[in-house]
Each structure stands twice: as structure tokens, then as C-alpha cells.
Amino acid sequence: MNDDKYAFLDTNILIYTVSNDVAKKQRAIELLGTKNVVISTQIISESINVMHRKLNYDYSQIRSITDKFIENAILSPITYDTISYALKIAEIYGYSYYDSQVIASALENDCTILYSEDMQHEQKIETHLKIVNPFLSLHARA
Q1: Is the pLDDT of residue 58 over 90?
Q2: Where are the alpha helices (DSSP H) in 7-135?
Q3: Could you give the CA distance from residue 129 to residue 6 in angstroms, rounded to a whole number?
Q4: Of the candidates 41, 113, 115, which has an alpha carbon nearest to the alpha carbon of residue 79?
Q5: What residues contact residue 68 under an 8 Å CB cut-off, 6+ apart?
Q6: Do 8 and 34 contact (CB within 8 A), yes or no?
Q7: Taking the CB of residue 15, how many other CB atoms lie within 10 A of it?
Q8: How far apart are alpha carbons 97 and 102 in whole angstroms?
Q9: What per-residue confidence (pLDDT) applies to 2?
Q10: Which domains are present in the chain?
Q11: pLDDT recorded at residue 99
Q12: Distance CA 46, CA 4 (A)
């Protein structure tokens, strides 16, 4: 990728774009609309699972929502290299395998920020990826 900065979105960010939490929904939509946003096939798969099992969307609704996600982001496939890198990340940083796969995909795509509500805020990974909880400022205002 080029010199522009890339940001990676975790599953929870996508899920908030369809949530009833107005403040988080607005922030998540802003992030998804940002230039140079990356998501992986893992993030799409996890989002589909949550929308179907927890939010009770039917598959036609999910297809429409998923199409919008992909229209607004760079989609990165999970490869064996990603899997191997995720194992290394899990070993070094102690994250779960699936969180490590998200981190590995962000690193493979030269992202400088990983937006996630579920990981350690402001942690640096491999010196150039910073994990950011984009909803912390919302809590400060409440």
C-alpha cells in the first residue's frame, strides 16, 4: 500500500453501524466512511454471524448490509500467511487467536490504527499499529 495511512475496523465497529446505540452508531458510521479503511473476510464473517444469531436479521438484510460494508472499505482476504502471522501475534502479545488474526490482518495491510472496543486501548503492536477504542470519548461526554 502507499504512504496514506490505513485504519482497520474490528467486527464490533461494523456491528455498531446497525445498532440502536445512537452515539456509537454515529461514530461507527463515521469510521466506516473514512478514506483508507480496511476490513478482512474474517470481520465480514463475524459480522454476518452476529447479525443473524444475535440481531435476528434475515440473510437478505444481511446481504444488503454486507454489500454496504464492502462498498465503503478495502476488503482483505485471510490467507495462510495471515493465519501464521496470527499465531505469532498470539504467542507474543497474549491475545486470543481470533483477535490475533484481526491484528495480523491489520499489520499485513500496513494499517497504523486498529479500531476496536474489545482490545487494549492505545497498545502498540509491532511498533506501528496502535489499537484505539473510538468510543472512549463518548463515555467521557456522558
Answers
A1: yes
A2: 11-16, 22-32, 41-53, 59-71, 80-93, 97-108
A3: 10
A4: 41
A5: none
A6: no
A7: 20
A8: 9
A9: 43
A10: 6-135 (3.40.50.1010)
A11: 97
A12: 27
